[in-house]
Amino acid sequence: MTLFNLVLYFALRDGIYLLYVAFVISTAFALGADQGMAQEFLWPEASGWTAIANFFGCSYSIGTFVYFSRRMLGTKKVLPRFDKLLRLLAWGLFLSPVGFVIAPFAVALPAVLIYLGTFLLVMAGTVYCLAVDRQRSAVFYAAAFAAFLVAALLTSSCALALSKAQWSPPMEYRLARRWKWY
User: Nearest Cα to 157, choosing from 143, 144, 168?
Assistant: First the structure.
């Protein structure tokens, strides 16, 4: 899908395809950092970077997700105030890795709360575009990203110890052990 959307970007010169490519690459990086694949292949000698890299990947993945959502749903035209909030939130996500480098464990809990809030805001915008504005693209968008949004909400709630799932992703488990949530 990444190469296909990259080809579509070069053929059509529509920026939404490039946003999707950036989203997929940053999500793959976040998943690779979370599961240890990135450490194994990209930085085998830097074990201290592994915990921070997961937050970098999540921040950039969610930031590109917000920008992709803005373009897909047309929030600049449909919901201008909401669009400004989403833009501000995305830039905060893009700049948040600075805090992860300076104080990773002090920034971790607020970051997870921001991730959770971001997904709830995007879902609210999608529901508005579906119900009130009746956008056809919002139907396809909601169908395509429903599984991603549910997984993100479950992961965030697990990290915040709002739910105790049978599985526990490595990053969230490390955070929970650090703050003695389990």
Answer: 168
Which pTM value belongs to this model? 0.78
Q: Is 66 buried (19+), middle (13-18) or exposed (0-12) by CB count in 10 A?
A: buried
Any residues with CB less than 8 A from the CB of 108 and at least 6 apart, and which? 55, 100, 175
In this structure, what are the phi and psi dihedrals at residue 68, rounded to the nearest 5 degrees? -65, -40
So what's the pLDDT on residue 96?
A: 87
Dump pLDDT digits (tens) for 45-71.
877 777 678 888 888 988 998 999 899
Q: Residue 16 in contact with residue 70, Cβ under 8 Å? A: no
Q: Give burial (CB, 10 Å; 0-12/13-18/19+) of 1.
A: exposed
Show the tokens assigned to 33: 């950092």
Instruction: Dihedral sign for Cα 51, 52, 54, 58, please.
Output: positive
Residue found by looking up tokens 């971001």 in the block: 118
Sign of CA dihedral 140, 141, 146, 147: positive
Q: Of 118, 99, 19, 86, give the one whose Cα is nearest residue 55.
A: 99
Q: What is the DSSP letter of 167?
A: S
| pLDDT for 118 | 84
Helices 104-131 and 136-159 pack at an angle, to 10 degrees, of 150
